[in-house]
Amino acid sequence: LSAGVLGCESVQRKFIRKRKEAPRPSPIVQFRDYSEAMDALERYRKHFVLFQYWNGELLRSLGSGMSLKAARHVSGEALQELRILRGLLNEPAGAPLDPMIAQRQQIHERLMNGTYMPSQPGPLRQTLETHTRLIYRDFTWRDAQEQLKAPAP
Predict the structure, then answer these.
(1) What gap in Å lies between CA 39 and CA 151, rounded to an integer?
(2) Rounded Cα distance, 130 and 100, in Å
(3) pTM for the complete prediction?
(4) Can you tell me the distance from the alpha carbon of 112 to that of 15, in angstroms, rounded to the nearest whole number?
């Protein structure tokens, strides 16, 4: 009997009490917005980089057959960053962005309605590439450095 009880590992496990494991504490992440501490040029630079990322993802999604849901999300983020860039510029300097924002809004609405499909980019991709070239040519942070609005006190 003792050889059977001591030799059988599964029986030993049945009679040994296991320690209760406390759940690991999960970290609490609190994001802080440091844009208030940034000057106008740093804020413009930050949003320009974000626009570059989302716009690149949108162009990639149109060529690679990404899902419609992903294309909708990426389009909305790119449009939002473009609007923020427009808001950071003075009125005469940001006026050329208004027609682009209007066209981007139409493109985003068509993506949301399902009129445009990311698997068939066609003229949609050409329009977005034209906007991208114009923005990179005229609205980089180096070009917009003198046309930024002064931060509100």
Answers:
(1) 7
(2) 10
(3) 0.70
(4) 61
